[in-house]
Amino acid sequence: MRAKDYKVVEREMAGWPVRITSYRIGGTWHAKADNVSPGATIATSRAANEQAALEAVMGKARARLAATRRFPVSAEGRK
Amino acid sequence: MAEYRSPEVLVETSWVSGHAAKPGVRVVEVDVDTRSYDEGHVPGAIGWSWDTQLCDTVRRDIIPKDAFERLMAASGIANDTTVVLYGDNNNWFAAWAFWQLKIYGHADVRIMNGGRSKWLAEGRELSADGPEPAPTSYTASGPDLSLRAFLTEVRDGVESDAIDLVDVRSPAEFTGEILAPPGLPETCQRGGHIPGARNIPWVETCAADGTFKSADELREIYANAGISGSKPIVAYCRIGERSSHSWFVLKYLIGFDGVTNYDGSWTEWGNLVGAPVERGA
Fold first, then answer.
1. B191 interaction partners in chain A (CB closer than 8 Å)
2. Per-residue pLDDT tens digits for B197-214
3. Among candidates A40, A61, A74 on the partner chain, residue whose Cβ is nearest the Cβ of B279
4. Cα-only R_g, chain B
5. Alpha-carbon distance A35 to B191, whole Å?
6. Do the Cβ atoms of A73 and B121 come within 8 Å?
7. Which residues of B are marked as active site?
8. Residue B51 — φ and ψ, nearest 5°?
9. How much is the pLDDT for B130?
10. pLDDT for A35-60, tens place per residue?
11. Backbone angles phi, psi at A69, to 5 degrees
């Protein structure tokens, strides 16, 4: 068996750049969302069709990204 | 174009395709998402779980020597086996495994350039079978702690300006805008970076397909950030896996001497009471 229909798209979700990778192995569609930089996997999904896999991974990723707190930054603590 | 300092540690997917089943070669997949292996993997590859098999599961530490020997033996790896590591997330945990194999003195360890994503994208053969290798007898050496930095060394090095610290996290983690990569749980009490560190995100060392950039490009990236190899280099990130990726680049692809991985990383420093922290770019 091989991965087929391998695709990578980037989009913004909850204010963060996200890369979504999807492919099919046999009859199962796999989708993975990562946060581009640093590139960590945020969510994965498996489904019987591409749309269901993408919707599931995006739903999970959106919820997790929305919980990320941003703090105001100023240069502090310099030697 | 200059070659990598140690080109033998990097193999292409085409090489793995032709050598994975050969005697004396053991391919190992090490993923962040430990379920990926079960989706399908390089035929003949075994899977290691970074969070249960490549660490001490009681205290925070790398895998103990005796557990490492058992893991290698059960994986059918002898002392003279060629071990080829690959994984997801651009080989983050494959590099983490590589670092530990070197700490325990395994001679022939290689990384598959581009990792799991490149193998999938190229439509190469996958297997769902879990091989059952014949156990071996394995004797580790070391640990070679010249490859690893501990808190006290980092703190002393910062205070005396004796080391070059490379923070390989994203700029938003480095500045303190966020406490963990977007979408992941916060694992530290403070944001920012170790005083004096330069921010050279690991992602800068890779091309779009996940393969490593050329030796010339890598040297330029670090040179532009002021890293020349004139001092010992300490790489760190959040938990030590992204920094093992950059440690691999610095030590084996560029060829700097005296490169260590501070696996305590920001989850250690950023939780220390009273430790100095810099914020901002």
1. 71
2. 999 999 999 998 899 999
3. A74
4. 18
5. 18
6. no
7. 237
8. -90, -5
9. 87
10. 887 778 899 999 999 999 999 999 99
11. -85, 140
The verdict on a CB contact (< 8 Å) between A21 and B117 is yes
Cα-Cα end-to-end distance for chain A = 56
How many CB atoms within 10 Å of residue B216? 11
Find, in chain B, the residue whose alpha carbon is nearest to that of A29. B39
> Tokens 């983490």 correspond to what residue?
B96
* Strand-pair partners of A29: A24, A47
Nearest CB to B177 within list A21, A73, A77: A73
Examine the pLDDT at A79 and tell me if it is beyond 90. Answer: no
Distance in Å from the first CA to the final CA of chain B: 32
Our CA angle for B182, B185, B189, nearest 5°, is 105
Q: Which residue has the tokens 């750049």?
A: A17
**A34·B196 Cβ contact <8 A:** no
Dist CA B117 CA B96 (whole Å): 17
CA torsion angle B231 B232 B237 B243 (round to 10): 120
Query: Can you read off the two tokens belonging to residue B91?
Result: 């080989």
Q: Give the distance from CA B61 to its chain's centroid.
A: 15
Q: Taking the CA atoms of B208, B214, B215 and B221 in sequence, report the sign of the dihedral they define.
A: negative
| Ramachandran category for residue B109: left, alpha or beta (phi over 0 → left; psi -120 to 50 → alpha) | beta
Residue B139 CA to residue B78 CA, distance in Å, equals 8
Region of residue B128 (left: phi > 0; alpha: psi -120 to 50; beta: else): alpha
Q: With CB atoms and an 8 Å threshold, state whether B32 touches A44.
A: no
B103-151 tens-digit pLDDT: 999 999 999 999 999 999 999 999 999 899 999 999 999 899 999 999 9
Other C-beta atoms within 10 Å of A55: how many? 14
Instruction: State the smallest CA–CA distance between residue B39 and chain A in angstroms.
Output: 8
Residue B3 burial by CB count (10 A; 0-12/13-18/19+): exposed, middle or buried? exposed
- Taking contacts as CB-CB distances below 8 angstroms, the residues of chain B near A42 are 182-184
Residues B144-166, mean pLDDT to the nearest whole number: 97
Q: What is the spatial distance between Cα A11 and Cα A17, in angstroms, rounded to a whole number?
A: 6
3 state DSSP class of B227 = coil
